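User: Predict the structure for this protein chain, please.
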Amino acid sequence: MGESASDILRRLLKLSSSQSGNKEQIVATDGMALSSQESAKTVDQAVQTNAVQINAGDPVKSAVQPTVDVVEPVIPRKQSDEAIQRVVNRLNGVLQSEEFQSESKGVVRFLMILTALYRANPESFAQATESQQGRTRIYFARDEATLLQAGNHTKPRQIPETPYWVITNTNSQRKMSMLEGAMTSMHLPTELVEEVRSYFSV
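Assistant: Here is the predicted structure, written as structure tokens:
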């Protein structure tokens, strides 16, 4: 149709060359897509592997946890009923004495009661004072220097007729709280605790 054999041959060769190029482009494009999928798969596997490693190991901590010294509470040993009754009798004697009844200073009454508790049962009193030691404050000690470590404002005084010292710069409510703690640890009756409380009411 007007085309020479040479023209037809050249047109066929050109078409064949074009199709071949398109196929190569398609293959290349598919290869890139496959490469991207493989990369994404590799990333997912890496994330999953790291997650398993984290879960299998120790928990991740967001901050350094402070070290806290745990102080084991001292549990007073239960005294015999006879020993408890001796303390009750002695303390009742002090509370009913003319000296105690005529005393107007709360700190003196406070010391008189502590003396009675110690004299009636030194072992139980020692356990009771140990059970009352606070985390940041010491209420009882066997020497003045220990209480003064918290400052001169603690005003430590020796409990008469005992080897113990006690802080005295506390109000009536705190003094009663200390007495209640000691008496409860010594397993004294609740009614006796309440009787003592009546002398330290604000």
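The two ends are 128 Å apart (CA to CA).
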